[in-house]
């Protein structure tokens, strides 16, 4: 896996509510569909809730899906996400949504959505029944260097953020298909991911990326007792030996007491697009 593809993986990765809330979420919207046990689906950075469309069709006959989309991503209005901190305010509103609706859901989070899931489980341990983390690390700096720290990466991340914010719209749109190819093999998936990125509010996108790279949940992992499964991709066309890739994930989560790991072959970051049948099998097993 090249530095460019790893950095690309980091960069990536109108609703109805089930009942009236005392204060509706302002950081995200939720669509609710299906019938059965509750499942919250969290997409990743700059992604739409549509990333789970195919899986949702298979789950709605048996589960009630709460499909989240962060405001400012994939063409949605930025709202209060346009300025100030994002991740912890989103976690607080997720907690408020779960509490107001008296849920105790399974949560599936991809990429940045996986990080938000970890943050929620760490701060509000009673909120989540069980969780599936889809290709997310508790600190993404580990992708670049096993000894990385937030402080070490900050100059690089800030420089990249400045470049992304200053880039003209046409130039940004032109490079997204190339960036996306490092994260998803499926042509259909490439189109969907690129569109979500291009139509995202650039400020929300970049600031969320900066917070993602500046968040290290590892000190809280030992306190997270929620049962968890981590599924992560392996693309043999990029690297031949899966052992170093597996080591990044297992060492990152070493202190988390109830987690198991599942490697998905022939896939890149968007497992739900590259290996939909395997993804569904893992989700079904997780929920049952």
TrEMBL record:
Protein name: Pimeloyl-ACP methyl ester carboxylesterase
Biological source species: Granulicella pectinivorans
Signal peptide positions on this chain: 1-22
Endoplasmic reticulum found in the keyword field: no
Superkingdom per UniProt: Bacteria
Recorded GO CC terms: membrane
Residues of the AB hydrolase-1 domain: 39-279
Molecular function as annotated in GO: hydrolase activity
Keywords attached to this entry: Hydrolase, Signal
Pfam family, one: Abhydrolase_6
